Amino acid sequence: MFKRGLAIALAGTLALSVLFTGCSSDEPENSSNDVKQEESKTASGKEEVKETTDEYSGTVTVQMIGDWEMETTTDPLTGVKREGLEVVKEEFESRYPGTTVEYVIMGWDSYTQKTQTMLSVNECDVYQVPGIAAFADQGFLEPLEPYIEKDGYDLGQLIEGQIDGWKAMGPDETDLHIYGLPVIGDTRTMMYDKEIFDQWGVEYLSERPTLEEIKEKAAAMTGTNPVTGVQNYGIAWRGRDTADTMVNIAESLGGTWGDGFRFKELTFNFNSPEFVQAADYLLELLAYAPEGVVTGQGLETFGTSQNNVAINLRVGPNNYYNTYVTPDTIDKYGTSYLFINENEGMGGMFAGSPYSIGATSDNKDLAWEYLKFMTSDFYQEYQWKNYQSLPVIKSATEWDDFVNIPGMDLVLDSMKYLWTPRYPYRAGQPRGILTDSVERFMLGESTTEEALNDAQTQADEWVASLK
Amino acid sequence: MQPTMKTISSKNHKKMKEQSYVWYLFLLPALIGIILFMVYPVLESFRLSFFSSNGVKETFVGISNYTQLILKEEVFWKAIFNTFYMAIFQVAIAVPLGFVIATLINNLPHFKDLFKVLFFIPYITSLVAASMVFMYLFHPEMGPINYLLESIGLPGINWLSDPLSAKWAVIILGIWNWMGFVIVICIANLQTIPAQLYEAAEIDGANSFQKFAYITTPKMMPTFSFLLIMGFIRTLQRFGETYTIGGLEGSPMRSLYTIVGFIYDRGFNGTEYGLASAAAYILFMIIMVVTLINMKLSKMNV
């Protein structure tokens, strides 16, 4: 009798638990009643109100490319502590109780192939996808517009252009759509050595220098330094960026690289008058640059106290940070914008890293929550503080750690002028073709017109060869 | 009934045969690894060479990847020229030079092992790390090589900015890296030449040059054949150092763009896997033909 009663009680409990479980929907609903607010601290220790919700469950797996570490480490060069990803894992899991974050960290070598393989076998839910266009084209990525709309996600919190820069096309689409949210920002600016300018008695670069201003000042500071007696060069740029620098100059003169988004549809303007003019301008600058600048030599001391180059035409985010946090060089360098096309109000190549959701992810709603979390102040500040990744949100201008570094406000501001969408040709052969041609005229092997005509022909032939 | 010798031998043979299968079991993990990670990729790559593929979407295109490479891709021929240019000069310089140094070391009364180690160290050095060091050595203003040239009254060279000197910088790096291997192999061969041959030659009145020309050199021929073949296979697959110094495009002006560089660029960078696979098979054919020619020229028996 007792056994029978126990069995009935157990069966009843089981039925009730099944009933209650069945009542909960697989589809998460955004009920504001489930959202609680709690005090929290950002990476810099600033108090902020964070929202927590227990309406999600399960595991979200995130693929990340680069030198990310799970645990806190110490930089062997600077001795500065770098907090591991365990910090953001803990924060996300506290905001979404009952969920778990797992990371798959991989190096930059062959990242496209590794990501493609992972996407093919549904290895992760969230992916870092700098090559977003190719993956979206193969139908590997989840379109994000429905999530943005459903959630009322405010795209206005992101720096202008960041969403447009990463737009891509799905396999059957003819227009660009949102497949990824920006997470890591990137940009280029000019940097100049104020000390060298002072020694030569030349006025510092203006915030938005013209082509003429650059050339005149570079010419004025090439030769033996009147104070130190050391050989100075007026200008230099990273050799492998010469083609990108030329495109930036050509665009500031009213030119465009070309048109189209899918490889098979690309057309190019590599031999347009603006490109030829930009090429001739770069050739003129060569007289004020160190020997070997075309192949990446001559800028070894730039950013240090031993520098001998007055203007660096193209500098990435790590250079600013390393230069501006070092006591020896914090006051030595200044920053200016890249060349801007006055009519379009744009200048410079769009870059960085977006994150996307895999189309076959089993936990897309939680993956979307993680994507949003990556654009939060907490995550963005964590990235900046520990990995010096440029933030993609406007509120970064309010961070103490950010605005106290000279030039960073200009660097952040420069991100909104970058040309969007990202130049598609740089993921294909035309990038190498253009580089080859630029090197040819820079090394005096052909005229600018011949080299650029050749680049145009080769790039067109490559498009035609695609089956 | 006592067992005869024949039945004992038959039993032992059967037992040994049974036991031999056990060893195959131990070989199985390695065999599976070879099949999965070597045989399968090689066959898959051959299949891919007949497709236009970005890794996911595939279209059968027959032999058009091969015809495109051979008939239309000028840059592929440039890669072949660069690869052979650097291979020929590297092998042509490293083998005789290595042999001369090996002979000198072999004749040393003391410290033979020390010199062998000193010369062999570059061979075990990472080529990528060595390339970084060589970029500094060849720096037009700060590099010690130009400093040396200028100190003896010669003009400095902008090594890595000129297509020809950039190739020679890579050749010099290659010789430095490979020389230790050549020396060690040559010394091993030199030590197997019987001393009696030299004694007999001396009795016959042969001088040092005659001994070198008529005893040492002929006895070294199999080693030279081996070094020639290994050297060409190695240099035709050149990639690490040219990629580090010249980047993906093989700068300057694609002068350091090699066949493997082309395969990497079009395959892994451009996701043109079909074309890259076809290039890999053309490289395979080139290496096979060059090896056969080398074997024929050096009269090496297989």
Account of the 3D structure:
The complex is a heterodimer of chains A (467) and B (302). Chain A has 467 residues and is α+β, with helices and mostly antiparallel strands. Chain A is 37% helix and 17% strand. Chain A contains 17 helices and 16 strands. Chain A has a five-stranded mixed β-sheet, with helices on both faces. The longest helix of chain A has 22 residues. Chain A is globular and about 65 Å long. Chain A starts with a helix and ends with a helix. Chain B has 302 residues and is mainly alpha-helical. Chain B is 74% helix and 2% strand. In chain B, strands 1-2 form a two-stranded antiparallel ribbon. In chain B, a hairpin with a 4-residue loop joins β1 and β2. Chain B is flat and about 75 Å long. The model of chain B has no long low-confidence stretch (mean pLDDT 90). At the A-B interface, α3 and α16 of A face α2 and α11 of B.
- Following the backbone from N to C, one meets helices and strands of chain B in this order, namely HEEHHHHHHHHHHH
Subunit organisation of the chains = heterodimer
* SSE-based structural type of chain B: mainly alpha
| Strand percent estimate of chain A | 15-25%
Kindly provide the radius of gyration of chain B, computed on alpha-carbon positions and rounded to a whole number of angstroms.
26 Å
Topology, number of strands of chain A: 16
Coarse shape of chain A: globular
Tell me the span between the first and last alpha carbons of chain B. Answer: 53 Å
How many beta-strand segments of chain B? 2
Biggest β-sheet strands, sense, barrel of chain A? 5 strands, mixed
Which class of secondary structure composition applies to the elements of chain A?
alpha+beta
Report the portion of residues of chain B in β strands: under 5%
- Name the helicity range of chain A: 25-40%
Average pLDDT score of chain A: 88
